[in-house]
Amino acid sequence: GASTLYGPYTLSAYTQEFKKLATALVSGTIVQQGPQPPDLLDKQISLVPPVVVDLTPIGVKFGEVRTDVPQSSSYRKGDKVAVSFWSACPRNDLMTEGTFSLVEVLDDTKTWIPAYDDDDFCLRFQWSRPARLSGVSHATIEWSIPETAVRGVYRISHFGCAKSIFGSMHHFNGSSSAFVVL
User: Fold this and answer.
1) In the prediction, which pLDDT does 7 show?
2) Burial class (CB in 10 A: 0-12, 13-18, 19+), 11
3) Are 164 and 53 in contact, with CB atoms under 8 Å apart?
4) For residues 110 and 114, what is the distance between their CA atoms, to the nearest angstrom?
5) pTM, whole model, 2 decimals?
6) If 0-12 CB within 10 Å is exposed, 13-18 middle and 19+ buried, where does residue 62 land?
7) Number of helices and strands (H, E) in the chain?
8) Which residues contact 81 (CB under 8 A, 6 or more apart)?
9) What is the DSSP string of 43-85?
10) DSSP codes, 88-101
């Protein structure tokens, strides 16, 4: 019960309130809003060490492609496409209203349209910091092209947020070269 909002009675409390809501839904009764749970975010502790700084090699910017798709490449449904970007720790911004990875398709007006993102099972985002005490890291995005993908020109994009040595945050993005799905 130590990690739940209402201790050992949390399950009973939720069951009681969900029963009230279900009954109201069936009968069409309007349910008045009850008290809000306390906001305890400022009282939580974290045992995860904070991000100190994010870095890239000299001459490289965050979001630049580290390993790209081959030029003029084409893939078939069922193939995997992987692109690696110079990145930053994802804990800097969890992108709750955005995405870390995106597959975009080029439409008839030559505009990139989002096709797949973090919530699609065919898209995998993997972040790594190869040297434990280094601020340099990269993200690899792997797209397993689904059978439902339409034929066309695609690219893979990455979004992130880097932390400077002074603590300021900088959002960045980058995109792979275009490739064709047959």
Assistant:
1) 79
2) exposed
3) yes
4) 13
5) 0.78
6) buried
7) 1, 10
8) 69, 75, 142, 143, 145, 154, 156, 179
9) G----SPPP---B--TT--TT-EEEPPPTT-EE-TT-EEEEEE
10) --GGG---TTS-SE
Whose structure tokens read 């979001």?
A: 63
Q: How far apart are CA 115 and CA 103, in angstroms?
A: 6
**Nearest alpha-carbon partner for 158 in 179, 143, 146, 140:** 140
pLDDT tens column, 33-45 = 888 888 888 888 8
- What does R_g of the chain's alpha carbons equal in angstroms? 22
The residue written with tokens 């340099």 in the block is 136
Token pair for 64: 């630049």
Q: How far is CA 149 from CA 70, 72, 99, 177, in A?
A: 20, 19, 20, 18
Q: Where is average pLDDT lowest: 19-23, 37-41, 143-147, 172-176? A: 37-41
Which amino acid belongs to residue 178?
A
- For 75-91, the pLDDT digits (tens) are 999 999 999 999 999 99
Residue 76 and residue 11: Cα distance in Å, rounded?
48
Is the model's pLDDT at 4 over the cut of 80? Answer: no
Buried b or exposed e, range 81-101, using 16+ CB within 10 angstroms: bbbbbbbbbbebbebeeebbb
